[in-house]
Write a structure and sequence with these properties.
PH-domain like, 9 helices, five-stranded mixed sheet, alpha+beta
Length: 380
């Protein structure tokens, strides 16, 4: 078998790994066990028999650099088989930087100009990508700092209200001066905060952002809030399996031959005892309760917000008069009062008409005067 040579270190080995068995598909735990020369990529025009060996870490270091490039969309997958690259090397970690420095030193040893040009191109791409990744990480860090400062400002705002509440999922609620304060709908909230973070700097003022990210609902605009969903209890029964029973034919024949009819009866029951497992019952609670809040928005249109059920107690504390049962009760009372008032007014009108009729009968007023007063009292 012809010897194969590593272009990085010049190591010569007699075993050659084919392209489909390249370093991309070798588990890290397998590296170093057998010194192989691997052809990593189909470099057009490169002489056969040249590659990158495992013996001195050449293949491993180039593999890390190429994984870094692949997971940052700088190169495509070199072979069709699934998942050879490792996401472990996605970031510009010290391990990737060390591997890149190794390649920068070893590329000077590459004898073939075609392979050397390809490795130099990978090195150039890696340096360029490291700069890009560094800028992205810095921007991400700045945005994270800004986001934390915004959350602090938001919490400070709610904590300064007469009443405030934070749900388990991080939702913030407040009430002050007959105004209910909530976070805007998710898409509005994310858009407003995201735009602020794009322009964030150390001296950024979040007051305008808070004004846009927080929904303010005057008490008069709240129609009602109510509980929706329910609590279900599901019983699950396990066990109770019954095994055994029937007749053991072989046992009956053997028992009959030895002990006669009585033996046949006993033998027929051997190994057929009825066995059962214990029955276990568990109860699973399924709670789908939430809180629905209905209100009139700034355009006087009816809007609805859905919140976790734990918000119900907070709303009962700050605006109990808006709970739907109480709202319906007050509405019914108002209707009853209106009917009573109208009935009373009608009775008064009839009494007045009767008085004017008596005056007409006594000749004190004329028919025309009576009809005029009657029309006034009946709003005709």
């Amino acid at each position: 078998m012809a010897k194969k040579t590593c272009v990085f270190c010049g190591h010569t080995v007699g075993t050659f790994a084919s392209f489909s068995e390249s370093i991309y598909e070798v588990e890290p735990s397998e590296w170093g066990k057998t010194p192989l020369t691997h052809l990593l990529l189909p470099i057009n025009g490169a002489p056969k028999g040249l590659g990158f060996c495992d013996a001195h870490g050449c293949a491993k270091n180039l593999y890390k650099v190429l994984s870094f490039l692949f997971y940052n969309d700088k190169i495509s997958r070199p072979i069709s088989s699934p998942g050879p690259f490792s996401a472990k090397f996605e970031k510009a970690s010290p391990e990737v930087l060390d591997a890149l420095n190794y390649c920068k030193v070893k590329v000077n040893n590459v004898p073939d100009p075609i392979i050397k040009a390809q490795v130099l191109e990978w090195i150039r791409l890696a340096d360029e990508t490291i700069t890009e990744v560094s800028i992205k990480q810095q921007q991400k860090s700045i945005r994270h700092t800004g986001l934390m400062k915004f959350f602090d400002a938001e919490k400070c705002f709610f904590n300064n209200l007469d009443y405030s509440f934070e749900s388990n999922n991080g939702g913030l609620f407040g009430f002050d001066n007959n105004i209910l304060f909530l976070r805007q709908k998710k898409e509005i909230y994310n858009s407003v905060v995201g735009a602020a973070l794009d322009n964030y700097s150390q001296d950024y003022d979040f007051s305008d952002v808070l004004h846009s990210a927080i929904l303010k609902i005057p008490l008069d605009n709240i129609i009602y809030f109510k509980e929706i969903g329910k609590v279900d209890y599901l019983a699950k029964v396990n066990g109770g399996k019954i095994n055994g029973g029937g007749v053991n034919i072989d046992g009956a024949l053997a028992g009959g031959m030895i002990f006669g009819a009585a033996g046949a009866i006993v033998g027929s029951q051997l190994g057929t005892e009825i066995q059962s497992t214990d029955i276990n019952t568990t109860v699973e609670t399924v709670d789908t309760r939430q809180v629905s809040l209905r209100y009139k928005d700034s355009n006087d249109k009816i809007a609805e917000e859905i919140y976790p059920y734990e918000v119900f107690d907070f709303l009962m504390k700050v605006i109990p008069e808006k709970e739907i049962t109480i709202v319906n009760l007050e509405s019914q009372k108002e209707k009853t009062f209106t009917v009573f008032k109208e009935s009373s007014q009608n009775n008064n009108r009839f009494e007045e008409i009767k008085k004017f009729k008596e005056l007409l009968d006594c000749g004190i007023i004329t028919e025309e005067e009576f009809q005029t007063k009657k029309a006034e009292l009946l709003n005709l």
